[in-house]
Amino acid sequence: MELALFCTRVTVLIFLLALYSPCKFIQSPVEFGSLNFLQTTTTSSLDFGRILFNSPSVVLRPQSPKDISILLSGLSASSYSKATVAARGAGHSIHGQSQTPDGIVVEMDSLPNNIVIHRKGDGEAGVSYADVSGGTLWVELLRESLKVGLAPRSWTDYLYLSIGGTLSNGGISGQTFKYGPQISNVLQLDVVTGKARPIVKWVRAFYDDFEVFTRDQELLVSKPDMVDYVEGFMVLNEQSLRSSYIAFPAQLDFTLDLSKGSRKVYYCLEFAVHDYQLLESNADQVVEEIKRQLRYIPMLVYSVEVSYFDFLNRVGMEEVSLRRRGLWDVPHPWLNMFVPKSGIARFKDLLLESISAEDFEGPLLIYPILRDKWDSNTSAVLPKASPPKENVLYIVGILRSANPSTCSSQCLRDLLRHNRHIVQVATAAGAGGSPPLIGAKQYLPYYSVQSQWREHFGSKWQRFLARKSQFDPLAVLAPGQSIFQRKYSLSDPTTAHPSQ
Ligand SMILES: Cc1cc2nc3c(=O)[nH]c(=O)nc-3n(C[C@H](O)[C@H](O)[C@H](O)COP(=O)(O)OP(=O)(O)OC[C@H]3O[C@@H](n4cnc5c(N)ncnc54)[C@H](O)[C@@H]3O)c2cc1C
């Protein structure tokens, strides 16, 4: 049989590992979803050298490359895990190179051994090559390829070594002078990296003009194909300037004029671009293109790159810091409002009249959302659009903390009174049938009087009542919302109505 030698294209599944400092594994098994770990195997702490016997914490015997990907993404996505991972091929290392004390050993021989030989002419490469898994032994590849009259052309002397294992080193033998080492005979590697985590580009840009700020925010929500997240906040004082600075690790090298009495207010627009969604361009390009379209104060723009997990967990990171400083378990006189676009500038003025910018603690969020993303069949209440086709409305979150060391119980009562005042003015109907001045609605509303609830739900009230009597006729559920009083029988007339 004539033996056609192939060497130029061996597609190997291999994974390269970014190693972390050794440390006990597994903070949260949940991160690894469906993976089944073994406590140990007969091979996981063993190699040819019989010199080192490092035991891993657990062993993974992957059934597919996806399993390895899940493992590495899970580890990379968590800022907390410090586990290391070692691939084990055939274990013919001498000094524990495929071991990891207290880490995770991935035994590559569990991967399905599908060897696919492509003959010259039927593959797109124009040469003969083999597709193999990283755990395949060279002897297995030889047997399979000989069946079709082909063979790799660069070898090791001994064949019971894995393809991934020798490609981690070189792979040398008597053919090396002629064809080069095995690593020179690879066409392509599928690489599962230790940097598998998706990245988020997160940008903050500062404004001192509310109109320009909101116009730019609205521009961003009109570009969902480019932008994945839009928020923003009012910068009332030094503390809010540094808002969520732990999650947003940028060095803000400027000082805003926020001195007492200056009454100057700044606005920070935030947006993010997730790189996993982008097919043809990269996140940096998209961010630059967006920035070119914005009109923030020149130079006052900052971007950071964080993991997808850390981005979504940004408030959790702040929580840890606030708890450490004793600022988490304090009273929170929060108020959230949906404000129609037509009323947002007036609402901003109302806020600035009602709150004292210097001692405001906590974030004051303000950002647009789109009405057509809401299902009108739910009981959530949005303000009326004005004009009727206006799709943009705003969410404003006045997420204040009242630290007892600086805000007494009287001070807390004052803050709650201020909130009620804001709600009253912002939700007031227009005089003499004219449109309301602001026309806002509360999000997460808190009312205790029937007339207020009725007004809050507006045209949705009757439907809301009907659903309540259909699904919870005795008003057993959710007493804390203070909408309905408990009934003791269906004929109980006193409790058939909402609370008074
Ligand atoms: C008897 C014997 C004969 C040998 N003859 C030769 C020879 O002729 N020529 C030669 O060049 N070498 C030779 N070697 C050395 C051998 O090539 C290396 O030790 C090789 O690493 C062993 O492969 P393995 O599959 O057993 O790897 P393992 O010991 O399992 O792993 C070796 C390294 O590769 C990594 N690794 C394994 N699989 C993967 C993968 N899929 N993705 C990423 N990393 C992976 C491991 O984490 C580890 O760091 C010989 C060794 C022995 C014991």
Automatic annotation (TrEMBL):
Cofactor: FAD
EC number, as in UniProt: 1.5.99.12
GO biological process: cytokinin metabolic process
Keywords of the record: FAD, Flavoprotein, Oxidoreductase, Signal
InterPro entries reported in the protein's UniProt record: Cytok_DH_C_sf (IPR016170), Cytokinin_DH_FAD/cytokin-bd (IPR015345), FAD-bd_PCMH (IPR016166), FAD-bd_PCMH-like_sf (IPR036318), FAD-bd_PCMH_sub1 (IPR016167), FAD-bd_PCMH_sub2 (IPR016169), FAD-linked_Oxase-like_C (IPR016164), FAD-linked_Oxidoreductases_BP (IPR050432)
Enzyme type, top EC level: oxidoreductase
Signal peptide: 1-25
GO molecular function, one term: FAD binding
Protein name listed in UniProt: cytokinin dehydrogenase
